[in-house]
Input
Amino acid sequence: MQRRYHKRSVFLMVSAMAGAALPALGEVYEYVGGDYGAWNSSSNWTPSTGYPDDDEDDAIIPAGKIVGVYTTSTTGSINVQQHENGTRGVIIINLNATLELGTDRSNVVSVVNGYVVFQGCSIEHTDPCPENLCPATLRLMYDPVTITSDPGKNGEIRGRANWSDGEHPAFSGGYIYTRNADTPDKLILEGSVILAGHMGVYCALENNATVMVDDPRGVGTDGECDECDENISCEAFEAPELCWKDHMILGTPISGDPEDFPKTGTGDWIVTGGTMTFRECGIDTSGDWTVSNPCDDDDITGIEHSLLEFESTAVIDCLSGDFTVFGGRLKTHIDLQTSGKLTFYSPKNAVQPEIFVAEGKTAVFSEVCP
Output
C-alpha cells in the first residue's frame, strides 16, 4: 500500500510539472519600438510576449531602428541590419549597462551590418569601477563569440558615438570584457566588420577584420575640450581627455593571466588619430599595421595624437605584417620583430612621423622570423 501510494504521488507531481507554464527558450525577437526604446521591455519587441533575455534567444534590430541597453541584458546573438539605401540599425549600450552576448550553439554567430555603440565613459581599467563612471560593457558569455558583417557591408562596434552628426563624443567609451578574469573567452571578428574608437578590449581577440582608432574630426577646439556633460562629473578628466581623441587599450582583465588573452588574427590594425595601446597580452598576428595623422603641421600634439604603442608588459615573438607610418608615432617598449617591411613617409609641410624604441630594445623589420 505504501509503495503504490508513493508511486501515485510521484506521478501526480510529474504531471503537475508538465502542465506548468515554463519559459520558452530559443525565441527570435525583432525590435519594433521607437528610437532609444529599452531592450528589457516586451512592448518593444515582436512577439510581444517577452524580449531577448537568454543565451538561446536571438535579437534582430532592423535598419532604421535604435534600441537602448540601459541595464543588464542578455541574448545569444544579434542581427543588426542595414537597408539597401544605407540606413542601419543601432544598439546603444549606455553608461553602467551591459549587453551579455553569446551562446553554446556552435552554428550561431552575430551579424552586425549596422552599429553597436558604447555610450559610456572612461576606459581605464579600474576595479571596482567608479560608481558614476562605469563604462558600457559588451560581455562575452561563451567561448568563442563571433561577430561578422555580410559581404559589402561595413558594420561597426564603435566606442565613440560619432555615427550621428551632432553627437558630442567626449564621454563615449566602453569595455569588451570576458565573463570574469579567469575565463578567457575570445571575440572573433570576421568579414568586413570594424572594431573602432574609444574602448578597452579585455578579452582574447582574433581579429580577421579591422581594428582601428579614428578621429575624423581632429582634436577639437579649446571650447570643445572644456565642455562637460552636466549629468557626469568631469573632475576625473583633464582637458585633453575631453577632446575628440580616441583611446583603445587592448589587454587582460585585472588578475587574469596575459597568456590566456592573446591578440591574434589576419586582420588590419589602423591608427588614424588617437592611441592604440597593447599591454599585458601576447600579440601574434599576420595583419598589417598603419599609423597616420589627421593633424595640421602646426599642431604641437601632432606626433602623440596618433600613437601605436606596445607597452613593456606586452609579448611579441615575431610578426609577419607590414608596418606603414604616414604620421604620428610608433612606440615600443619591447623588442619588436616582423618579417614584414617598414614603409616610413616623411611628407613636406606635415606632422613628421616618428619611431621610438625604448633603451635596450630593438625594432627589426623584414627579417626572417626565428
In short: The first strand starts at residue 28 and ends at 31.
